[in-house]
Amino acid sequence: MSVHVSSDQILEASLIHHEATESSSSSSVPQTKNYKRWFRLSIYVFFVLFCQPLATILGRLYYENGGESTYVVTLLSLIGFPVLILFSFFSQTRQPKSTDTNFNQPPSFITLASAYMCTGLLISANVYLYAIGLLYLPVSTYSLISASQLAFTALFSYFLNSQKFTPFIVNSLLLLTVSSALLVVNTESQATTHVSRVQYVIGLVCTIGASAGTGLLLSLIQLLFKKVFKKHTSSVVMSMTIYQSLVASCAVLIGLFASGEWKTLPSEMRNYKLGQVWYVVTLSSAAVSWQVYTVGLVGLIFESSSVFSNSVTAVGLPIVPVVAVIVFNDKLDAMKIFSIVLAICGFLSFVYQHYLDEKKLMTCNTNYVEDDAQI
């Protein structure tokens, strides 16, 4: 599970309405083999499966070799948002004109600015908590606990978006909760030599808090698209994502300078164990990796659906713990393996419910098109 939740499932929550509006027009068009489309899908899948674990590992590598600034790690997952501007331009050149016939008055500037500010600040707080969790926890433990954000998302959506608790959602909640709880109560075997018990507990609390904040954020964004934004198009989604990242980046930069951590960065670079060149390479590679991962995530949703995007994310779930065992010698005991299995099952249950919802939506749209044609 990534630190960069701001561009992970936030985009998925935002694009739920985009899929709904586009599916009605695409359901009446016969599907043909499009090798270019499958080529793009393959590239996006590679971006998601490769870049998300890479970015997380690079963040931990920064800590392991003398890096100490949580603000820097936080900024790495946000500051590369200009890449999204290029992707937005590229995707719009291939997107057909919207068939949305909703001509309601668009939100005012104050409303948009308030939405971007509130969600952007919440993003910065969540990512900062994730950075603290990554500092004090083993990468494998951190990534598995982060999976609990799906449970928090379903919980907050129940209150904010009237989401129904189906058997598959309840099953997902239970599995993800138990998966994270096993790691929380198993603190003795997870503690590392360079982290005290207090710091380990702080890492657990921050990671769980960030997961809860991410669930709240996803539900709020879905509510905004339901109540505030009148046009549910890819351009609106990308604009919101870019401005959110801009606000979040500015907030983290203010924190970096206000805390005084920026003063230690020159000495941190000089004393970096791998050398100054690798210091720059590590940070820049992590920033690029997060944004390339985001491009892959958005691309999968645009080319297919959020269900497929979530499925790819679920497939990539075990990658971070396995890589962490190889790179950082993390312990992969029986408890952690069992937690990985539970987390994957919880993910798949969550994704399967979304698949059923999308199938139901497509059936309703197809019936509507057929009825309209008969009339």
Automatic annotation (TrEMBL):
- Please provide one cellular component term from the Gene Ontology annotations of this protein: membrane
Q: Where are the transmembrane segments?
A: 41-63, 69-90, 110-136, 142-161, 168-186, 198-225, 237-257, 277-300, 307-328, 334-352
Enumerate the UniProt keywords alphabetically: Membrane, Transmembrane, Transmembrane helix, Transport
What are the recorded GO MF terms, alphabetically?
purine nucleobase transmembrane transporter activity; purine nucleoside transmembrane transporter activity
Q: List the subcellular locations.
A: Membrane
Signal sequence, start to end: none
* Name of the protein in question: Probable purine permease
What organism does the record attribute this protein to? Raphanus sativus (Radish)
